[in-house]
Amino acid sequence: MLTLAPDIEVLARFGRALADPIRCRILLVLREAPAYPSDLADTLGVSRTRLSNHLACLRDCGLVVTVPDGRRTRYELADPRLGQALEHLLAAVVAVESDRTCADAATGECC
């Protein structure tokens, strides 16, 4: 019998990461190029503390990694295929129906 548990866990982890708009924005920015936290905070218009919490979540999910760069730390996607996956996912969602919303932005709960 085929067990899907590991695959389901990986997809659930990816889904948790994408469940927050700020984390989605971080992933989309990092899809373009690695970035430093201060630059990400400025680009996204969020506090560094808030950004740090989201980056920790993405690190814990295994989607981003840190790269020491002198006295600074740079963030990048853990695997370049994640950027490609995001592009494919965006294209698929837009192709299906771009005028739908499925979650309440305030609660994150699906309709």
Description:
The protein has 111 residues and is mainly alpha-helical. It has one domain (9-91): Arc Repressor Mutant, subunit A, CATH 1.10.10. It is built from 5 helices and 2 strands. It has helices spanning 5-18, 21-32, 37-44, 48-60, 80-96, and strands at residues 64-69, 72-77. Strands 1-2 form a two-stranded antiparallel ribbon. A hairpin with a 2-residue loop joins strand 1 and strand 2. The radius of gyration is 15 Å and the shape is globular. The model has no long low-confidence stretch (mean pLDDT 86). Keywords: Cadmium, DNA-binding, Metal-binding, Transcription, Transcription regulation. GO terms for molecular function: cadmium ion sensor activity; DNA binding; DNA-binding transcription factor activity; lead ion binding. InterPro entries: ArsR-like_HTH, HTH_ArsR_DNA-bd_dom, HTH_Metal-responsive_Reg, WH-like_DNA-bd_sf, WH_DNA-bd_sf. Residues 4-97 form the HTH arsR-type domain.
CATH class: Mainly Alpha
Question: What is the fold-level CATH name, i.e. the topology?
Answer: Arc Repressor Mutant, subunit A
Give the full name of the CATH homologous superfamily: Winged helix-like DNA-binding domain superfamily/Winged helix DNA-binding domain
Give me the count of strands.
2
Strand content: 5-15%
Q: What CATH architecture do you see?
A: Orthogonal Bundle
* Number of H/I helices: 5
C-alpha Rg (nearest Å):
15 Å
The shape, in one word, is globular
Mean pLDDT: 86
Largest sheet report: 2 strands, antiparallel
Mind sketching the topology for me?
Elements: H1 5-18, H2 21-32, H3 37-44, H4 48-60, E1 64-69, E2 72-77, H5 80-96
Helix pairs in contact: 2-5
